[in-house]
Specification:
Helix content is about 25%, strand content about 15%. It has about 120 residues and is an alpha+beta fold. A hairpin with a 2-residue loop joins strand 2 and strand 3. It is globular. It binds protoporphyrin IX containing FE. Keywords: Electron transport, Heme, Iron, Membrane, Metal-binding, Transmembrane, Transport.
């Protein structure tokens, strides 16, 4: 009796493309913050950039500063080329867990402002 209970079929919130997508929490990503094991979050995707550190044209320092955390802003601030964006794919390991995303447009989590209160 082999127990082959992969949760392949569960629908929930997975992107349709691939049911084997892995999800990581920010906390899990945070553990990978050193040069021998470095992960980054960019646009809610998780990358293992350990192999890339010494190849980065912008140097490994800047990557290490961000290792284990969300580098979306720094990545965008630099204005990385399309090439750079394509390189990301090679290091992709999974998605940021839904609960840890920055609620761009999901659920009913709306921030109320009082702009129109007259
Ligand atoms: C895995 C993520 C990243 C990849 C694949 C990547 C890739 C690249 C590539 C290919 C370049 C050459 C210029 C270009 O094509 O745009 C570059 C330059 C640069 N990157 Fe990144 N990068 C990453 C993350 C970051 C992060 C998080 C930072 C900042 C904290 C950063 C800072 C820089 C800087 C400052 C340069 C400019 C270097 C120069 O022109 O002297 N990069 N990066």
């Amino acid at each position: 009796m082999g127990e082959e209970m992969k949760n392949k079929s569960s629908s929930n919130h997975l992107p349709a493309e691939d049911s084997d997508v892995k999800f990581f929490t920010r906390e899990e990503v945070h553990a990978h913050n050193m040069s021998k094991d470095a992960w980054l979050i960019i646009h809610d995707k998780v990358y293992d950039i350990t192999r890339f550190l010494e190849e980065h044209p912008g140097g490994e320092e800047v990557l290490l500063e961000q290792a284990g955390s969300d580098a979306t802003e720094s990545f965008e601030d630099v204005g990385h080329s399309t090439d750079a964006r394509e390189m990301l794919q090679q290091y992709y390991i999974g998605e940021l867990h839904q609960d840890d995303r920055k609620n761009e447009c999901k659920k009913e989590v709306y921030i109320t402002t009082s702009k129109d209160s007259r």
